[in-house]
Design a protein that fits this description.
The structure holds two protein chains of two kinds. Chain A is α+β, with helices and mostly antiparallel strands. Chain A is about 25% helix and about 25% strand. Chain A has a domain of about 325 residues: Methylamine Dehydrogenase, Chain H. In chain A, a hairpin with a 2-residue loop joins strand 28 and strand 29. Chain A starts with 14 loop residues before the first helix and ends in a 16-residue tail after the last helix. Classes of the chains: A alpha+beta, B alpha+beta. Chain A: InterPro entries: BING4_C_dom, WD40/YVTN_repeat-like_dom_sf, WD40_repeat_dom_sf, WD40_rpt, WDR46/Utp7.
Chain lengths: ~625, ~450
């Protein structure tokens, strides 16, 4: 274990992000000088009992004495995005002193790094309701305060997490991409080394593979019909069959007890003993499978150009959407909002939900066809690769703008994101992995984090959840690669527990089925359901006014209060009325003036180098 | 090269022996819990459906009276005891845990018009059609003794209601006037009248204990202060008020059960506009009683149903009815705020849960936690149309259902006419009167 931080090897620290974080802190009003107990002590011994804010210089000198935290921070390569400087923390500023003069070295509640609390914050305060009543507003304020408190509590519970993420760091100037799997296997412990293995299955052709949601089980299917599932940690084979038909794709359903295989003709569902349970003839010539575990939907893309959603809990087809783009063989799901991304041969990626007949969005990504698409676990980034040998990363939050791009010599045929945001690409018989600056950050495409050459062409890639392992299916069989820092180290026992017993799995299955999310709720923003539906609110109000014939919530005209001792003369009443009316009028004018420049800005024509003859038609 | 792989020790995640509890490590990171809102929504939907499935509010029917139950009274000290007076002059005392009648008294000739308990719970008072006020001991007579009242006061006129002061040995009766009595005397301390009409009910304010409210059949509600010899003020409504009930938590709020199918919650400081008009009944409202929390009240109606209203909502949150229950004459909310009792024409007293889907008995801590969680979810998503529809749905008897439809049509017609009148008359000449102000005729001080 090292204690001294090394300068980051490849990429300069991201200034923008840090600045943005600073801004957030100041805007929340959390920027507060914090004091350490040792600082207080030094000031006590030196200058008596004046608890003034200690200078920054002293702070800097004393920082090295923090033994535990620094260790933890430096150890991980991926947690370094948190600024190595002193984290700003929430804490009571004044230490309390008892009668004896001794003082609590840790006054107030335990401090929480602001970035962590930010992660749990769910309310977007920038959104304001249009015309909310004061009662509603106060209620919302209460809800916001509650939410804030909850986020702080949740952030505090971070302390209890047991595991640290993995990492891989080169010596000074050493390129991690040059580190071979063999070296990693030699360097790590036996249990981890056992996770690297090769299955040599040359005769059954290129393999597709899939890990179950807990990361405990692996299913793979070869082009020549070989299908097997195994508990890959203990290497115990669960079933092995040959379906005597070409296997295009394979996917576990909600648990490891069921898996779906896209065969040459139809879609088949098998159980963990390899017994065929269903043959779904309404999904024919399926090329790609995706399973949406919270909706219990199996999305299939077919050669015939249809995207079909099959509800596996009731066995019904929820929607069959015609993408009108020919053969579909590039598909991925967005794990954040369950939207299906389809890549097409004309270079577009279209976003689909079963509730809509038309795509939610179409993004033009490449010149030439799209070969692979992947979306990261937070739903922020989408990586695409096309026939133009480009690898691009898009921002999925609203604008769909490309963030970074890179031309690869061969072009990537398969892309996949890991839980912590590593991007793996399969190019011919080489697998490249890129990493970003921290958890779920944008992977920088300049230099790969790891590379590995396989014995055959890559045909399927999948990161194992909750393990630092990348499964690669290729023409020569299956390879399980070690990728330190790929997976989320701390799983949630109630969500997906790799160590669950059979009883726990059964209970979880019942719970999961009870809270199956209806397919209609799939949309781009999964939090939309918790927001105020302003449009229908306004509509309702309008209808009500129409029905009643008047606006019951309209502001009553100002009626001056009667005053005593002759001040209530008609002239003064009129005067007072006029005063209020004028004030209202002025307010209206002021508002309209404020809105006008915004409108003008919108109208402003795009300035070009040379005016065009067609400009005269612009409005 | 420095490398660390994620390597978990299974011993930290698997229980040691079969007797241990399973280990469930938690991580509250939002990325590990996707679809938080839709899943919560589905849970809320399920919770709402389950609430409707488990909504079985009827607990027991206490039968034994030989005529319609006319009045009910709660025991101030014992949750299990309840007193009832019937139209044949019989008073019964019931034990709710055993659901049995423990004592029967032939108290009056003719109706028992009113019954109330003393604040200490040792005795109770009844008034009847035979112009008497009788005080009875709460405990039954000893062996061989005869059932006899402690005191009997012979009045000149019929008394139609009685209520006891909450702290002192004073009670009030009503009939042609409101009389304030000292328990030790046989003549009233003072009598108060305003107009000449029969007063149907009188109620002491539980907080400002010197205040009284009464309602008379000349359509008004009169407020009195016991310390003054004259009434405070009165409000005249469109139709007669049957009873009033004071809010036990807010001293100045009371609710009046009116003949025009509505209930009116008034702030006694501003009687010219009711705080809220509660409309859902389809026939005259006969009785009203507040929950001890002061957040809700229950009303009994001539339309053979009882309804529970939140104080700040104009629509009821719950309606209870059974096939056999006839016109409900009296209703009481028990002091632990968990049950509702109603006495009806067909000689039965019925016991209901105040919260229809509540599970009775002791809950384990996990049950309690699940209940609280579901409650919060239902609250959070209550405005979503699908959930709202399920939560609001109630089965109603055909008579009530058709009456509601009919009255809706009538109300719509009235509104349409009003709108037309407004549209076709000179602007400003016709003003729209809000529902709250419509039913108030005058306030007199």
């Amino acid at each position: 274990m090292e204690t001294v931080p090394k300068p980051s090897r490849d990429v300069p620290p991201k200034k923008n992000r840090l600045q943005a974080k600073k801004k957030v802190e100041t805007s929340l009003g959390w920027k507060r000088k914090t004091r350490r107990y040792w600082e207080e002590e030094t000031s006590l011994t030196a200058a008596g009992a004046s608890p003034g804010p200690p200078s920054n210089k002293k702070n800097r000198e004393l920082r090295h004495q923090r033994p535990k935290n620094t260790n933890i921070q430096k150890k991980s390569r991926f947690s370094r995005a948190q600024p190595p400087k002193k984290p700003r923390e929430l804490r009571n500023p004044e230490p309390q002193r008892s009668l004896s003069g001794a003082q609590d070295p840790f006054p107030g509640p335990a401090p929480i790094p602001v970035e962590v609390a930010q992660k749990f914050c769910r309310i977007d305060k920038s959104k304001k309701l249009p015309h909310s009543k004061s009662k509603t507003r106060s209620r919302l304020e209460v809800a916001e305060a509650e939410e804030q408190e909850i986020s702080i509590k949740a952030a505090r519970s971070e302390l209890l997490l047991a595991e640290e993420p993995g990492f891989l760091e080169g010596e000074d100037g050493e390129d991690t991409a040059k580190i071979r799997q063999v070296d990693i296997v030699e360097a790590v412990d036996i249990a981890s080394a056992a996770k690297h293995f090769d299955l040599n299955l040359r005769q059954f052709g290129p393999y597709r593979l899939n890990y179950s949601r807990t990361g405990r089980h692996l299913a793979f299917g070869g082009r020549r019909g070989h299908v097997a599932t195994l508990d890959w940690v203990t290497k115990r084979l669960m079933c092995e069959i040959n379906v005597m038909e070409a296997v295009r794709d394979i996917r576990f359903l909600h648990s490891e007890a069921l898996f779906a295989v896209a065969q040459n003709r139809w879609l088949h569902i098998y159980d963990n003993q390899g017994i065929e349970l269903h043959c779904i003839r309404r999904c024919d010539r399926v090329t790609r499978l995706e399973f949406l575990p919270f909706h219990f939907l199996l999305a299939t893309a077919s050669e015939t150009g249809f995207l079909t959603y099959l509800d596996v809990s009731v066995g019904k087809i929820v929607a069959a959407l015609n993408a009108r783009a020919g053969r579909l063989d590039v598909m991925t799901k967005n794990p954040y909002n369950a939207v299906i991304h389809l890549g097409h041969s004309n270079g577009t990626v279209s976003l689909w939900s079963p509730a809509m007949k038309e795509p939610l969005a179409k993004i033009l990504c490449h010149r030439g066809g799209v070969r692979a698409v992947a979306v990261d676990s937070t739903g922020t980034y989408m990586a695409t690769s096309g026939l133009d040998h480009q690898l691009k990363i898009f921002d999925l939050r609203g604008t769909f703008q490309p963030l970074s791009a890179r031309t690869l010599p061969q072009g990537a045929g398969h892309l996949v994101f890991s839980q912590r945001g590593l991007l793996a690409a399969g190019m011919g018989d080489v697998v490249n992995i890129w990493a970003g600056q921290g958890k779920a950050s944008l992977p920088s495409l300049e230099q790969p984090y790891l590379t590995h050459r396989l014995s055959g062409h890559v045909h399927g890639l999948h990161f194992c959840p909750f393990e630092d392992v990348l499964g690669v299916g290729h023409t020569g069989g299956i390879t399980s690669m070690l990728v330190p820092g790929a997976a989320e180290p701390n799983f949630d026992g109630l969500e997906s527990n790799p160590y669950r017993s059979q009883k726990q799995r059964q209970e979880w299955e019942v719970k999961a089925l009870l809270e199956k999310v209806p397919a209609e709720l799939i949309c781009l923003d999964p939090r939309a359901l918790a927001e105020v539906d302003v449009i229908s609110l306004e509509q309702e109000k309008k209808e009500r006014i129409e029905r009643l014939g008047y606006d019951p919530e309209a502001k009553a005209p100002f009626q001056p209060k009667p005053k005593q001792k002759g001040r209530s003369s008609t002239a003064s009443l009129v005067k007072r009325k006029r005063k209020v009316m004028d004030e209202e009028h002025r307010d209206k004018v002021r508002q309209s003036l404020e809105q006008q420049p915004q409108k003008q800005e919108k109208k402003a024509k795009p300035t070009r180098a040379r005016p065009s003859a067609l400009d005269r038609f612009l409005r | 090269m420095k490398v660390k792989m994620l390597s978990r020790n299974p011993d930290n995640y698997v229980r040691e022996t079969k007797l241990d509890l399973q280990r469930v490590p938690r991580n509250y990171d939002p990325t590990l819990h996707p679809f938080e809102v839709p899943r919560e929504y589905v849970r809320a939907l399920n919770a709402t459906k389950l609430e409707r499935v488990f909504a079985k509010p009827f607990l027991a029917s206490l039968d034994g009276h030989r005529d319609g139950v006319n009045c009910l009274a709660k025991h101030p000290k014992s949750l299990a005891t309840v007193l009832s007076g019937a139209c044949d002059g019989e008073v019964r005392i019931w034990n709710l845990t055993k659901r049995k009648c423990i004592r029967t008294i032939q108290a009056h000739e003719g109706f028992v018009r009113g019954i109330c308990t003393r604040f200490c719970g040792t005795s109770f008072f009844t008034v009847g059609d035979d112009k008497t006020v009788k005080q009875w001991k709460m405990d039954g007579p000893g062996y061989g003794e005869e059932e006899e009242p402690l005191h009997t006061i012979l009045g000149k006129t019929v008394y139609t209601g009685i209520d006891h002061h909450w702290k002192e040995a004073v009670f009030a009766t009503c009939g042609q006037q409101v009389d304030i009595w000292d328990e030790q005397r046989t003549s009233p301390i003072c009598s108060m009248t305003w107009g000449f009409d029969s007063i149907s009910s009188v109620k002491f304010n539980p907080i400002e204990t010197f205040l009284l409210g009464s309602c008379a059949s000349d359509r008004n509600i009169v407020l009195y202060d016991m310390r003054q010899a004259t009434p405070l003020k009165k409000v005249i409504l469109d139709m007669r008020t049957n009873t009033i009930c004071w809010n036990p938590m807010e001293a100045f709020i009371f609710t009046a059960a009116n003949e025009d199918y509505n209930l009116y919650t008034f702030d006694m400081r501003a009687l010219d506009t009711p705080v809220m008009v509660h409309m859902d009944h389809v026939s005259a409202v006969l009785d009203v009683d507040y929950s001890p929390t002061g957040k809700e009240f229950v009303s009994a109606s001539f339309d053979k149903s009882i309804r529970i209203f939140p104080v700040d909502k104009s629509r009821s949150r719950e309606v209870y009815h059974t096939k056999r229950m006839q016109h409900v004459i009296c209703v009481k909310w028990t002091s632990d705020s968990k049950y509702i009792m109603c006495g009806s024409d067909e000689m039965n007293i019925r016991l209901w849960k105040a919260n229809a889907s509540e599970k009775l008995g002791v809950l384990t801590s996990r049950e309690k936690a699940a209940k609280d969680y579901n409650q919060k979810l239902k609250e959070k998503f209550q405005h979503h149309p699908h959930i709202k529809r399920i939560a609001r749905h109630r089965h109603l008897p055909k008579s009530i259902y058709s009456q509601i439809q009919e009255q809706r049509i009538m109300r719509e017609a009235r509104r349409r006419k009003e709108v037309n009148r407004l549209k076709h008359s000179k602007p400003g000449s016709v003003s729209i009167v809000s529902e709250k102000k419509k039913h108030i005729v005058a306030v007199v001080k």
